[in-house]
Each structure stands twice: as structure tokens, then as C-alpha cells.
Q: What sequence folds into this?
């Protein structure tokens, strides 16, 4: 088709340059600088237009149409004999901006001449272009460069056309070719150009063209010439537009082409070419105006062309290639993944249809690789970037050495390696990228106009490696390379702003690393120059402005100068205003603007700024496609904004939104993505701060897990590893403060020390990391009181402050931490200089903190605390007044419901009490109680703070306001179970209870003193044996629930896992609470596993005897007797007894049995784990006598239990003791060893005693007592005379005799029993058999673990059977356990209210009754007691049923009473005889 203007295929600078726009911005992590990423987008240059036409150009023909005789001619002047004559020849025009374009097939007109009979329309850079001749037979044959100088010379001469003849440069023995053509230069602006005198005037040509267009429009549509002439008019309008830039000409060109297309016959073989040209026209208008409808039309036409071109057509590859490039251009604008996927498909098809040896193949591969890289940058699929790398490598491999396109293809390969490195952080990729870029630079001739661009790619790779490794030599290389690129580029060159931007990025990154103000100043100067050199309306202007803003913001972060931050926001707002809303980078620029608003909010506390930050980030997220690779970046920033507003307002909704955004960012990021550790770190920070607000350990445990993973995913040597270690250390520190676990503070210090060690000296962030390290040392000091820790902490904090520039916003925080450390050292060493210096430092912190700042209340509270501490040391009333003033202001500034409010209220209350102690002013006590009350009733913050406030409130109110004290104790008892919550390990729960173990007894003493016996009972039940109750609550009430909802009951049962890991406990506790909520929603289960009310307790007291609760407290001692049918507990004051007396009796007993070797586990065969008793003394008589006179007899007197004539069927009594009394043998109280001792002077003469940890323990067994199964009870007997795994325990041969005696007795009846002894008594076998046996008898050594009771257990042949294993096991018919081992009923002195012993553990495991021992038992008497126990149990069964012998735990207490009384009768009441049977005790029903 003649006269058709052909554009080169669309592979201009926009397509071949990197489109990866890695944001310069990064997100803040705690107070550390954020990881920052660079932008490497290449700008679009302004093109000038050059047109090549034939050598026989005719002015007149030009005025109307192109002459059909015009040709571009290539002639083979020489062909060596060794070369065959060429059959095919193409000319390829390579734009030096685009680096390559399409090949134009020439027509062979003779053996040595080829012609191209159309005009070649070139959109090229004014720097020049290259023509390459190639053939299928010989590949690239030769080329010529038309240089900038030549083009400049042509544009200044008249006429505007010139005949050009050039000999092509060839290599080797290839044929010598010459090229002849004529060139017409049309300026891109409206400047006048000299014309030939014979040429018609511009006005005349314009009039003639307008007339022709009007005339042709009036022709009938069926005129066969009309489409052709309309198309020629379109060509001429387009040419005139290029000269005049008059948009009306362009629009008329489009109208002409559209009309021509409508009239063209579908069968016309030239229609495809016609549509191809039309697509190019629309693409050019898209480039000029940016209207999506134009690129849409371009793609539509190119698709038609590709579909209309047969696969065998020689141009099919080029047409698919140009379609792929057009789709890529639209993708750049819309980021629609469909476009880039279709582009890839088009390129792939082009390659499939192109022969392996075709000269175009490397070029097609290069374009495919670029498209794959772009899709990777959009979607994040590693497969795409790996394919891109392979494709580019193949393109390079297929390009001959010395080929002029080799540098460009190496650059593409380098970009692909860089993109993959940005994703996975693999240093080998960035090394490959550097190698490719270095080779590309080396192969580009010196002085070549592309040298600066290739240097830019090389510099970006050095920059990327520096960001990964922090190696300063890389950033120095990057700066050097960028500076060279700038030096080689003319100031007015279109690419100069892009090169300046890259140079600015390098200085910016070095500033981030070293914190040098000169670097950030240099970066800002360079960024601003890039803005000045960029024309208004340029598409890159928003990017340059955004970078200017980021630089200003970063300088603010170093200097604290608000002017810089305001400049940053102004620049970034302008960037967003200039960016089209549908531009792919608009979300990124919005994100950066939002970050600046966020930083200003942190400086000023202006809530309007944080609202703008959130709104801006929300818009960025909304404009980002859900599956876009940048979505995690936007979500992370949004989470940061919500996080900061939460810090200011304490609104839980904000921190929940922050966590949601951060969690989504993590979930959307592939596991190996280089940003994954950053998102995990920020998620951890958000979770940690919600924990600080709510005290929910679930959040803190998840925070530590996230940050541990963040550190794990960060390679050693990574520049951001110190930052992530710092955050992890802070989270460990927080958990230590909550749980007191020393391993956590050790982990925190280790992480902080490593972070400091990995931070280069002089780095701007060093001060932040020293601050964190100092806090960790301080926290460990508070636990260990090791003076070296506090000294190390103060040293680190002082250095942190010295390294922080004056006016930096972090200084108040660092001063606060230093003041706290000095305060703590004062409390340890009592040096007044320390507390005075602390006060001065806190005052500085307050002075430097902006009004309304979220940290101000905390600083004021700490200042007040220091004033109080100095007052308590010096007595200066001015100090305590200052303390109260500061703390009152702190509370006023604390948001309602803030997690720190209870602690501050506590602190203010303490100050009022301190002043009261000196002045005696009762208003101070009232003010203190008011604050304690508010702290105790708060719903947020750690339960320990609430409990401390409630205890102090109760203590201060007891004498001046008893009703308040009642309210205070009620709250304190409620809080006990939270302090020992199920989210903690059992060890931790018990540790938390040590210091508050007497709370329930104190509350009960207060209630008793005011006649509130019901309340006293409830408080004792609610506040004692918390851990066992938690375990018991997981087991005992399930029967009723199982009948209503078996699945729900089974779910609850499965929550019995008792792992030690904190995370497991946290998760289980949360699941437990959720299940409880479901159960309590069922009618009749509203109070499921809640502590019972007094009325419910009394309702289920057994008829067979009373329950006696003995409360032992420092203020008073009382007994509460619970009897069946009573409406209220019966109060028995124990006026002769006291806490001190109970403590002395306990200590006397301990010393007595210790002196006799009873508690020492030895190796003698007559003791189970103890040495033979030494010579007796008289201590046991006195202990038992005092118990009788001071405790037991007063209770029996009030109950009117006759002691004169002991009944034939003794009374049952259940004892529930507290305090030191829990370690004393109440069941054996009496008068022994006296000549006038008569029957009835010992409790065992007329009563059968049992012990219970709590009343609820008994009531659950009464309510859930199972009837005997149809099958007979089954007894499992276990004897372990020796333990090969534990040879130091010694042999106890009596265990074998004991089990044999029991078996012989059972054989007389129809009882099933199974004996496991010796090597058959293994852990696995015993556990298996316990499931099917309701009775279990252990005759072996036992271990009592006071630190972790669930680790207590029984020594079997192959190891220790732990209580934790028994509790987790479902033993459906568990009834009675006989623990014929040593000290199985002895607890921990520090936890007297928790019943930390094996007997209580077996009750918690589900057994109704347990026989245990208070201290070591004699091996030689064990068999006799056991035989008598089971013999009596059987007889009782016959007596009760009247039909057959039966075993039941209901008669276990009677059987033990019988057995011990039998041994007493046999041995008498000597001290040594008493020690044989007194250790045996019964627990439970």
C-alpha cells in the first residue's frame, strides 16, 4: 500500500526501561527508621520526528500524496566469490532511545538491489538512530549510525530534504552494502524552517489539504477510491500535526482513518496493513494525550491485525510483537493483570512462530522477558521473574558478540536479576545483576548517548546490594556511578531528571545508614534540581516531588525541625494533586503522603493529622487492586497509622484495625518475599501494644512468635536485622514484666545486645538501640537486684542521650528511661543524689514533651513517683505535694479506659497514703481509697495491678469504712483467679499466688469479725486451691453437660492439655473461655464451673457429718462448721489459737520428724524412702495436745458431739484447714501419753476424719457419686520394690508383701484385681490398666514437685508416672486411690492455700477418695495397714448391701480409720507408735 506511514514497533523507552518503582519510603518500626526502598522508574523522553522517503522525492507529489516511484534502496556493491547471492534482505531501524524497533522487508529488484517502496515514519530521539541490514542467510550484515551532528546539520539546511548515500559498516567477510534514501526533517515545535523557493507555501498546502478532505468526504461511499484517498488525507493531517502540534490536525487525521476503515472492504488484502497503520496513529495520540480510549483503540486494531495475519506470514512475529508492546503500555497505565498476561501470550506466540535462527528472535525474547518482569512486579509470582531471567539470558546468548544490541539486552537481564533480588534477597541475584550491568556499560562505546542510562542501571544495582548488606563500599560505588552518568548527560537532556533522581536516592540511602546531615542535604538539593529541570505537566513530576517530600521528612526525623516536615507534606500533596487518579503510582504517592501526616502527628499530637494519615492510607488501599504486589505495602502503612492513633487515644478499635491491616499484609506476602520480615515485625509491634492496653497474653505471645519469625527470615548481615532484633527484645521485655519469667528478660537483653553490636558506630539509630538495651538491664535489675545490671543500664541510657541530636523528638523518652533507672538505683542504694538527679531528668522530659502528647501522662506519673520516693527519704512535705500534683495531672491526661490508668491511680493513692502517714489528715486516706477503688474496678490493664489496688483499698478501709472494705475484698477475691489465669503455666500461676496466698484468709477474717459468715465461707472457697479448681473444673461437672450436649462436653474435656509452652496455654485459655460462654448460654448451666454461693454449699453438705473450715490468719482464728440442713455456717471462735501458734506447731512438727529422720529419704529396708528413726523425744505429744485443746475440742463443744460415750459408728468429720494448720495432723489431735488418759480424749476415739482442699471438692463428689456398675469394682495393684532408672532411691521390699497380702484378702471374695510388679509395672502398662480399674493402689516411691505439682508422680520400673499424665487420661470409673508411698499428702509451706501435693492432684484427676501420707511411712507396717484397710472395706460392703462384698470409696475413710486404730491397739500410744499410723490420711468423700 503506497503512501502508508509506518511507525517502528512499539518498544520505546517506556517499554524497555525498568518499570519497577520501589518506593523510597519505609514504615516506622517502634522508634526505629523504617526499611526504605528506592524508585528506579525510567522517565519518558521527548521525541523529535524524522521521516525517511525515497531518493526521487517530488515536491508536488508531497503536496498531494507520496509518489509511487519513491524508494529506499539498498545495493550490494560487492559480493565476495565465497559468498552466495543474498535471497532476502531486511532493514531494521533502531531508535537509540528504544534500542530496537521492527524489521522492514525489502523487495528484491535485481541480484544486487532491494527497494522499500513506502515512507518510513520514525519517532526517534534527536540524538540519532541506527539502520541495520540483515538477512535470513547471513544475519546482521552491516549498519550505519545517523548521528546527532548529522541530524543537526540537516535541520539547519534548505531544502528540507536531502539525498543520503552511506556505505554500511560490516564485520568480517560479509558483503559490502550501500544505502540510498532521502530524508525530510519536520521539527516537533512550530519554529519556521527554511523552504525551497519552488516549494508551495504552508498555507497553500493546508488549503489544498482541507479542500481535498472536504471533497473526498462528499464522494459516495461505494466509490472504490474513497478509502484510499481518506487514508492519504489522514497521513497528511498527521504529518502536519507533527510539524505544527495543532491538535485539530491530529483529530482530523483520526477522523479520516476511522472513516477509511469503515469503508474498506473486509476482503481487501490491504485492510490488515491499513488497520495496522491506524493503530499506530491512535497509539501516537495516546502518547500525546494519555486518553485510555486511544490505547484501547490501538490494541483493538492491533488485535485485528494479528488475527488477520496468517501464522505463516513473514510479518506475523512483528505484528504480535507490536501488539504485546501496546498491551504492556496499557498495563503500565491501568495495572490490569489481564493486559500484561495477554502481552506475554502475544510475545510467546511471536516466538513460537519465529524460527530458532531468525534474527528477530533475541529481540522478541527481550520483550517477553520485560513483560514477565512487569507481571512479577504487579503480581509477585516468583515463577514469572524466574522465567524473565531465563528469557533474558537466552536473548543474550542468541545475540552475537559485538552486536550493537548486546548492551541493551544485558541491561534487561540485569533489571530482571535486580527485581528477583528485591523479592527474595538472594545475594547471588544482585551479583548477577551487577555483572550484567557492568558488562553492558563496558560494551557501550565511550561517548555513546546510552552510556548514562546504562550507568544508571549499574548504580541502582549497587544501591540495592547496599540496602541488603549495609556495605558502605557499595553505596560509594553507586554514588560514583550516578555522578558519572549525570556528568555525561547534557543539562537539558530529557533523561537528566531521572539520573538526578537516582543520584539523590544514593545520597538518601547513605544518610539513612550513617545519619549524616550533609548526605540528606545533598539528596534534597539533587531532588529539587530534578524538579526544576522537569517541564510542567511531565508525567514524572509527581515522582520527583514525592522524593523531595520524603527527603524533607527524613531530615525532620533527624533534626525535629517542623519546617522540614511541612515542606515534605506540601511537596507530597502537590505530587498527589498532579497524579491522575487512575495512575498506577497514585496509591504509592498517597501512601507516602499519609506517612508524612503520620510523622507530623507524632510530633505535634494534632489528631487532625492522624485522621488525614488514616484517610490517605485508606484511599491508597482502595485504589490498589487486591492482588497487586504493592497491596501489603499500603496495608502496612495503614496499620501503622491506626497503631499511632491508638497510642494517642487508647481506642481499642484502632489497634484492632492496625492488627487487622498488618496481619493481612503478612498473609498477602509470599513466604520468601524480602518484605515478609518487615510486615511480621510491625504485626508484632501492634500485637504487643494491644497487650499493653488489655493485658491479654495471647497478643504478646503472638507478637513474640511473629517477631521471632521476622528475625529468622532475615539473613545474617542484613541491614535491618538489628532493627528486628530490637523489636523482638522489646516484646520479650514486656512478657517478662507480665510473667516474671527470667528466661524472657535474658532473651530480651541478648536480642538488644546483638542489635547494638550489629549497628555500625555512628549510625543514627544507635541511640534507639542503646535505649532499648538500657531498659532491659533495668528490668532485669528489678528482678535480680544485681547492681551491675542497673549500672550497665544507666551507662547505656546515658550514651543513648549523648548520641541523640538536640531537639530530637526521642529525647523525652530516653530521659524518662534514664530517670527511671536512677530512681531504681536510689531504691537499692538509698543515695539521695540518684533520686534528685532522677527528678531533674523527669522534669526535663516533661518540659520537652509537646502538650497533648500520648507519653505525657506517663512522664508526669514517673515524676510524681520520684518526688514521693524522695519525700519518704527526707520528709520534705513540698516533695509529696509536688508528687500528688504531677500524678493528678497524669490521670487527667490519661484517656478513659487506658491500660495504664490503674497503675497511675495506684501510684496517686500511694502518694496520698504517704502524706497521711506524716500529717494524719483523714482526707488523704479518703482520697487514696477513692483512687484505689477506681484502679481496682478498672476493666483494662494487667489483673495484678487491679488486685494490688483492691488489696490496698481493703487494707486502708477496714478500720475507717468497713462497707468499703467489704466491697474491696469482694473485688480482690474476684481478681485472684485472673492473676492465676489459665493462659499461664501452672508454675507461673503458683508463683503469682505466693505473695497473695493469705488474701482469702484475710478476707474471711474480716468478714467473720463483722458477722458475715456466709461471705467468709464464699471467699475461702473462691480464693483457695485456685489451680486445682481450674483443673477440677475441666473434669468434674461434665457428666450433666454430657447428657445435654455430648459434643460440647467432649470439647471441654479435650482442653485438658497441660503443656508448659506459654503459647499453648494462652491458646487453650482462650478456647476454654469461648467454650464456657457457649455452655453458660444453655438454660440450667448459667453458673457452670462458677464458684458456688453459700446457700448452694450448705444444700449439699453430707448427712453423715459436718464440714469444719478453720481459718487461720494473723488477725484472728475461727472455725466455720457446716452441717446438713443448716441455713448458715456455725461460727466457732478459736480465741486461744493464733496464726503464730499454728506456725510454731508446724515448725515444731517439722523439726521433730526431721530429727527422727522421717522426712529424709534413705536406703533402709524398713522405711519407704527414709532412714531408721533416731531416739524419740516428747514433741509429738505436745503438738497433738495443743491441737486438741486449742482447735478440735472447741469445735466439738459447739457442735455438741459427745466425747463421754464414743458411738459405735463414729461421726464423720471433714476438715478444711488453712495456713500453717494444713501441715498439722488434726485427725490425730488428742491427749496421749498421760496416765489418766481416758477414752474420748482423742479425736480418733469417736470421729472418722477426712481432709478436703476446699468444700467444693467434697460437694462435687457428693453430687456426682456414681452407683456401682453392674460389673464388680476392679482393683489395680502396683508394687515397685526397686527402680532401676533411679538407683539412689533404694529398695523397699515391703511393697511386694503389701500387694500380696491385699491379693490374698481379695481372693476370698469375688473381686477382680490385677497386680503389676517389678518389671511389669511400666508407665505404659500402668496407664493402660488404670483406664479399666476404678481402684488403684500404689506401693512405691513417690516424688513431690513443689515448683510444678503436675510433675509430681510415682516411680515405676521404667521411669516416673507423672500426675500430668494421669490427669490428661480419661479414667471413666475412677473411685479410690491408695498412695502407699511417702509424703503424698504434704504440701508447700509457701502455698498453704493451694494444697500442692499428690493427694489433691489425684482428687483433681477425678478420684472420689484418696489415701495418702503426711510423711514417710515404715515399710514393715505398710502391708498390715493395707491388708486391714481392704479387709474392712470388704466387710463394710457386705454389711451395707446385705448380699455381696463390694468395694466403694464411700467407705474408704471408715476403712482407713479401722486400719489405723488396729495398728494403734497393737502398738499402743508411744511416740514411736503414733508415728506409724498418724501419717496415713484420707482425702475426699
A:
Amino acid at each position: 500500500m503506497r503512501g502508508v506511514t509506518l511507525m517502528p514497533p512499539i518498544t520505546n523507552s517506556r517499554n524497555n526501561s525498568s518499570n519497577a518503582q520501589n518506593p523510597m519510603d519505609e514504615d516506622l518500626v517502634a522508634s526505629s527508621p523504617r526499611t526504605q526502598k528506592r524508585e528506579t522508574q525510567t522517565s519518558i523522553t521527548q521525541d523529535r520526528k524524522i521521516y525517511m522517503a525515497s531518493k526521487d522525492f517530488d515536491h508536488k507529489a508531497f503536496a498531494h500524496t507520496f509518489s509511487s516511484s519513491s524508494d529506499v534502496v539498498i545495493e550490494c556493491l560487492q559480493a565476495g566469490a565465497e559468498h552466495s547471492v543474498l535471497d532476502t534482505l531486511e532493514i531494521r531501524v533502531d531508535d537509540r532511545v528504544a534500542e530496537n524497533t521492527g524489521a522492514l522487508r525489502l523487495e528484491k529488484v535485481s541480484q544486487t538491489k532491494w527497494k522499500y517502496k513506502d515512507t518510513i515514519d520514525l519517532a526517534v530521539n534527536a540524538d540519532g538512530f541506527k539502520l541495520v541490514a540483515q538477512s535470513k542467510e547471513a544475519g546482521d550484515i552491516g549498519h550505519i549510525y545517523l548521528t546527532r551532528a548529522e541530524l543537526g546539520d540537516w535541520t539547519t539546511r534548505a531544502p528540507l530534504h536531502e539525498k543520503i548515500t552511506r556505505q554500511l559498516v560490516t564485520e568480517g567477510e560479509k558483503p559490502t552494502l550501500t544505502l540510498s534514501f532521502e530524508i525530510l526533517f519536520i521539527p516537533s515545535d512550530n519554529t519556521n524552517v527554511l523552504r525551497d523557493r519552488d516549494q508551495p507555501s504552508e498555507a497553500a498546502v493546508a488549503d489544498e489539504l482541507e479542500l481535498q478532505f472536504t471533497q473526498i468526504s462528499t464522494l459516495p461511499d461505494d466509490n472504490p477510491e474513497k478509502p484510499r484517498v481518506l487514508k492519504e488525507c489522514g497521513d497528511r493531517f498527521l504529518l502536519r500535526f507533527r510539524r505544527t502540534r495543532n491538535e485539530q490536525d491530529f483529530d482530523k487525521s483520526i477522523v479520516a482513518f476511522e472513516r477509511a476503515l469503515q469503508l474498506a472492504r473486509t476482503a481487501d488484502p490491504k485492510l490488515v496493513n491499513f488497520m495496522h497503520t491506524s493503530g499506530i496513529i491512535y497509539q501516537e495520540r495516546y502518547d500525546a494525550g494519555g486518553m485510555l480510549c486511544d490505547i484501547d483503540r490501538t490494541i483493538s486494531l492491533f488485535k485485528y491485525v494479528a488475527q488477520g495475519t496468517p501464522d505463516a506470514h513473514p510479518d506475523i512475529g512483528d505484528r504480535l510483537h507490536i501488539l504485546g508492546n501496546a498491551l504492556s503500555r496499557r498495563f503500565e497505565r491501568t495495572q490490569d493483570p489481564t493486559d500484561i498476561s495477554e502481552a506475554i501470550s502475544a510475545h510467546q506466540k511471536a516466538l513460537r512462530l519465529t524460527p530458532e535462527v531468525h534474527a528477530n528472535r533475541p529481540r522478541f525474547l527481550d520483550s517477553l522477558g520485560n513483560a514477565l518482569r512487569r507481571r512479577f512486579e504487579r503480581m509477585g509470582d516468583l515463577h514469572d521473574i524466574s522465567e524473565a531471567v531465563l528469557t533474558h539470558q537466552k536473548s543474550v546468548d542468541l545475540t552475537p558478540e559485538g552486536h550493537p544490541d548486546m548492551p541493551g539486552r544485558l541491561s534487561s537481564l540485569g533489571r530482571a536479576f535486580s527485581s528477583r533480588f528485591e523479592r527474595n534477597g538472594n545475594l547471588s541475584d544482585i551479583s548477577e545483576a551487577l555483572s550484567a550491568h557492568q558488562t553492558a556499560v563496558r560494551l557501550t562505546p565511550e561517548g555513546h548517548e546510552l552510556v548514562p542510562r546504562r550507568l544508571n542501571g549499574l548504580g541502582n544495582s549497587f544501591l540495592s546490594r547496599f540496602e541488603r548488606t549495609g556495605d558502605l563500599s557499595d553505596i560509594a560505588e553507586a554514588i560514583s556511578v550516578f555522578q558519572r552518568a549525570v556528568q555525561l548527560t547534557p543539562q537539558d537532556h530529557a533523561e537528566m531528571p531521572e539520573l538526578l533522581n537516582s543520584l539523590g536516592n544514593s545520597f538518601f540511602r547513605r544518610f539513612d545508614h550513617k545519619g549524616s546531615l550533609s548526605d540528606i542535604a545533598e539528596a534534597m538539593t539533587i531532588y529539587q534540581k530534578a524538579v526544576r529541570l522537569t517541564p510542567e505537566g511531565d508525567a514524572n513530576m509527581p515522582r520527583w516531588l514525592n522524593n523531595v517530600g520524603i527527603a524533607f521528612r527524613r531530615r525532620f526525623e533527624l533534626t525535629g525541625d517542623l519546617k522540614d516536615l511541612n515542606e515534605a507534606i506540601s511537596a507530597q500533596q502537590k505530587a498527589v494533586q498532579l497524579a491522575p487518579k487512575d495512575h498506577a503510582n497514585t496509591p504509592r504517592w498517597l501512601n507516602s503522603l499519609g506517612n508524612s501526616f503520620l510523622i507530623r502527628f507524632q510530633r505535634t499530637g494534632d489528631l487532625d493529622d492522624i485522621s488525614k494519615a488514616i484517610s490517605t492510607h485508606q484511599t491508597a488501599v482502595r485504589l490498589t487492586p487486591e492482588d497487586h504486589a504493592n497491596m501489603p505495602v499500603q496495608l502496612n502503612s495503614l496499620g501503622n497509622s491506626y497503631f499511632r492513633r491508638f497510642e494517642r487515644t487508647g481506642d481499642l478499635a484502632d489497634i484492632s484495625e492496625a492488627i487487622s491491616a498488618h496481619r493481612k499484609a503478612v498473609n498477602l506476602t509470599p513466604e520468601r518475599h524480602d518484605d515478609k520480615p518487615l510486615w511480621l515485625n510491625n504485626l508484632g509491634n501492634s500485637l504487643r501494644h494491644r497487650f499493653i492496653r488489655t493485658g491479654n497474653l495471647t497478643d504478646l505471645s503472638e507478637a513474640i512468635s511473629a517477631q521471632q519469625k521476622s528475625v529468622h527470615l532475615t539473613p545474617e548481615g542484613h541491614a535491618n536485622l538489628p532493627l528486628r532484633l530490637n523489636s523482638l527484645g522489646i516484646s520479650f521485655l514486656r512478657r517478662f514484666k507480665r510473667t516474671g519469667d527470667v528466661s524472657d528478660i535474658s532473651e530480651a537483653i541478648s536480642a538488644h545486645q546483638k542489635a547494638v553490636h550489629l549497628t555500625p558506630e555512628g549510625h543514627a539509630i544507635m541511640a534507639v538501640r542503646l535505649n532499648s538495651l538500657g531498659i532491659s538491664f533495668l528490668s532485669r535489675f528489678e528482678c535480680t537486684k544485681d547492681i551491675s545490671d542497673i549500672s550497665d543500664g544507666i551507662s547505656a541510657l546515658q550514651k543513648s542521650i549523648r548520641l541523640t541530636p538536640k531537639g530530637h523528638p526521642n529525647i523525652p523518652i530516653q530521659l524518662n528511661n534514664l530517670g527511671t533507672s536512677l530512681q531504681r538505683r536510689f531504691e537499692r542504694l538509698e543515695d539521695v543524689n540518684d533520686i534528685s538527679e532522677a527528678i531533674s531528668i523527669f522534669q526535663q522530659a516533661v518540659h520537652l514533651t509537646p502538650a497533648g502528647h500520648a507519653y505525657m501522662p506517663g512522664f508526669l506519673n514517673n515524676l510524681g513517683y520520684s518526688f514521693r520516693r524522695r519525700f519518704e527519704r527526707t520528709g520534705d512535705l513540698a516533695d509529696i505535694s509536688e508528687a500528688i500534683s504531677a500524678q493528678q495531672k497524669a490521670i487527667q491526661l490519661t484517656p478513659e479506659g487506658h491500660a495504664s490508668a490503674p497503675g497511675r491511680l495506684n501510684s496517686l493513692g500511694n502518694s496520698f497514703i504517704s502524706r497521711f502517714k506524716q500529717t494524719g489528715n483523714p482526707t488523704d486516706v479518703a482520697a487514696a481509697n477513692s483512687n484505689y477503688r477506681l484502679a481496682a474496678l478498672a476493666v483494662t490493664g494487667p489483673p495484678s495491678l487491679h488486685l494490688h489496688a483492691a488489696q490496698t483499698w481493703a487494707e486502708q478501709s477496714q478500720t475507717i469504712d468497713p462497707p468499703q472494705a467489704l466491697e474491696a475484698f469482694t473485688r480482690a477475691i474476684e481478681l485472684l483467679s485472673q492473676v492465676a489465669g489459665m493462659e499461664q503455666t501452672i508454675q507461673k500461676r503458683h508463683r503469682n499466688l505466693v505473695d497473695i496466698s493469705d488474701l482469702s484468709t484475710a478476707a474471711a477474717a474480716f468478714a467473720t469479725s463483722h458477722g458475715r459468715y456466709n461471705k467468709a465461707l464464699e471467699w475461702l472457697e473462691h480464693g483457695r486451691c485456685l489451680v486445682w479448681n481450674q483443673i477440677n473444673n475441666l473434669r468434674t461437672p461434665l457428666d450433666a453437660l454430657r447428657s445435654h450436649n455430648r459434643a460440647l462436653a467432649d470439647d471441654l474435656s479435650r482442653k485438658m492439655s497441660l503443656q508448659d509452652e506459654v503459647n499453648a496455654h494462652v491458646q487453650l485459655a482462650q478456647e476454654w473461655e469461648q467454650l464456657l460462654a457457649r455452655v453458660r448460654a444453655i438454660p440450667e448451666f448459667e453458673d457452670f464451673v462458677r464458684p458456688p454461693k453459700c446457700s448452694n454449699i450448705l444444700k449439699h453438705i453430707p448427712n453423715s457429718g459436718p464440714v469444719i473450715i478453720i481459718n487461720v490468719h494473723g488477725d484472728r482464728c475461727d472455725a466455720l462448721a457446716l452441717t446438713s440442713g443448716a441455713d448458715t455456717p456455725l461460727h466457732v471462735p478459736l480465741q486461744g489459737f493464733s496464726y503464730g501458734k499454728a506456725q510454731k506447731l508446724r515448725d515444731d512438727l517439722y523439726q521433730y520428724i526431721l530429727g527422727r529422720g522421717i522426712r529424709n529419704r534413705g536406703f533402709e529396708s524398713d522405711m519407704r524412702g527414709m532412714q531408721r528413726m533416731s531416739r524419740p523425744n516428747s514433741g509429738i505429744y505436745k503438738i497433738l495436745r495443743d491441737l486438741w485443746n486449742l482447735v478440735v475440742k472447741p469445735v466439738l463443744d459447739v457442735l455438741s458431739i459427745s466425747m463421754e460415750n464414743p458411738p459405735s459408728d463414729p461421726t464423720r468429720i471433714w476438715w478444711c484447714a488453712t495456713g500453717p494448720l494444713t501441715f498439722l495432723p488434726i485427725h490425730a489431735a488428742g491427749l496421749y501419753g498421760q496416765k489418766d488418759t481416758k477414752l474420748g480424749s482423742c479425736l480418733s476415739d469417736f470421729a472418722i476424719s477426712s481432709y478436703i482442699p476446699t468444700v467444693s471438692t467434697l460437694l462435687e463428689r457428693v453430687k456426682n457419686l456414681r452407683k456401682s456398675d453392674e460389673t464388680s469394682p476392679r482393683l489395680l495393684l502396683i508394687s515397685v520394690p526397686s527402680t532401676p532408672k533411679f538407683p539412689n532411691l533404694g529398695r523397699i521390699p515391703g511393697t511386694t508383701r503389701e500387694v500380696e497380702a491385699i491379693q490374698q484378702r481379695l481372693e476370698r471374695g469375688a473381686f477382680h484385681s490385677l497386680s503389676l510388679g517389678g518389671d511389669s509395672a511400666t508407665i505404659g502398662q500402668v496407664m493402660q490398666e488404670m483406664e479399666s480399674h476404678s481402684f488403684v493402689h500404689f506401693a512405691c516411691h513417690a516424688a513431690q514437685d513443689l515448683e510444678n505439682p503436675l510433675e509430681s508422680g510415682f516411680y515405676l520400673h521404667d521411669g516416673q508416672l507423672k500426675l500430668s499424665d494421669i490427669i490428661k487420661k480419661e479414667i471413666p470409673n475412677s473411685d479410690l486411690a491408695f498412695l502407699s508411698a511417702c509424703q503424698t499428702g504434704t504440701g508447700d509451706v509457701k502455698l498453704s492455700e493451694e494444697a500442692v501435693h499428690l493427694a489433691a492432684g489425684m482428687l483433681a484427676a477425678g478420684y472420689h477418695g484418696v489415701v495418702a501420707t503426711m510423711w514417710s511411712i515404715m515399710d514393715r507396717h505398710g502391708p498390715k495397714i493395707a491388708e486391714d484397710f481392704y479387709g474392712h472395706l470388704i466387710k463394710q460392703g457386705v454389711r451395707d448391701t446385705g448380699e455381696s462384698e463390694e468395694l466403694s470409696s464411700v467407705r474408704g475413710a471408715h476403712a482407713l480409720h479401722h486400719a489405723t486404730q488396729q495398728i494403734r491397739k497393737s502398738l499402743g500410744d508411744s511416740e514411736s507408735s503414733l508415728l506409724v499410723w498418724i501419717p496415713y490420711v484420707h482425702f475426699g468423700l
